[in-house]
Amino acid sequence: MMYSNKLVCSVKANGKFLREEHRGNESTVYLPFKTEYALFLKNLSERRALAHVDIDGKNMTEGGLIVAPGSAVDLERPANLSSGRKFKFIEKTAEISNFRGDNPEDGLIVVKWQFEKPYPTIIINPWPATRWIGGTADWIYYNQTDTNSSAPRDVTYTACNSVNPQVLRCAAPHQPQGITVEGSRSHQVFTQGSIGDLEATLYSMVIKLYGGQRPIYVSEKIQCPTCGRKWKMSFEFCGNCGTALK
After folding, report:
1. DSSP class of residue 167?
2. How would you classify residue 82: left for phi > 0, otherwise alpha for psi between -120 and 50, otherwise beta?
3. Nearest Cα to 61, choosing from 103, 110, 26, 28?
């Protein structure tokens, strides 16, 4: 499961999360060919996010996909108001390459997102300050949003993620290449929505799909070849005998 700048993204197959190998803002997932998959997106921010998903260089979210604060969505087909088919990962054979050509973005899932601008906060002092002049009260109200006021104000800072999704990592020759095509019919339904002004900061993450013999799920464990004990997939060495697990 990949996390970056308040957004969680992961690939799912058969309703389960697939194991990922992370390198910065790029993740690698091994998936058997002819497998249908979905893209899991969860917004951990307190503001709505507008996400754009490109698969094999093609836009899969017309106008963007709105993800509400704290909510998640399984994107199993292109997001539009018409019907569609599920994402299916197949091998890019020589025959397919000769017919359709090779795209440098084949096998890539690129997710970009922006957050909605926060609504301005107006702070009102419920008890005005009092100044005494000649025995009478002169009420003075301090507007904390006034630029001429010396009262403190909240300041929001944003950090820009300068990841360039066009800088791609070349795959090793032994890693089977694949592309995403249309699979079985999907019953997922989308509706139109609206979102406010967006922040200028555009975040992104990249997931690379490769062909594998079988899907590796997050819940699985790896067995030590020396002592036979099983450990989490995140372990690099056996906690019992010290043998390298990867």
Report:
1. S
2. beta
3. 110
Average pLDDT, the chain: 78
- Local structure of residue 121 (DSSP, 8 states): P
Cα dihedral 19, 23, 25, 26 sign:
negative
Residue 244 amino acid letter: A
How far apart, in whole angstroms, are the C-alpha atoms of residue 44 and residue 68? 9
Alpha-carbon distance of 61 to 47, in angstroms, equals 20
Cβ density class 149-185: b for 16+ within 10 Å, e for less: eeeeeeeeeeeeeebebeeeeeeeeeebbbbbeebee
Query: 196, exposed or middle or buried, with CB in 10 Å at 0-12, 13-18, 19+?
Result: exposed
Residue pair 143/222 in contact by the 8 Å Cβ criterion: no
Q: Is the pTM of this model over 0.70?
A: no
CA atoms within 13 A on the CB side of 143: 4
Using one digit for the tens of pLDDT, what is the confidence trace for 135-152? 444 433 333 334 343 333
The token pair at 36 is 């249908």
CA pair distance 135, 10, nearest whole angstrom: 69
Buried b (16+ CB within 10 A) or exposed e, 56-86: beeebbeebbbbeeeeebebbbbbeeeebeb
Cβ atoms 72, 41 nearer than 8 A: yes
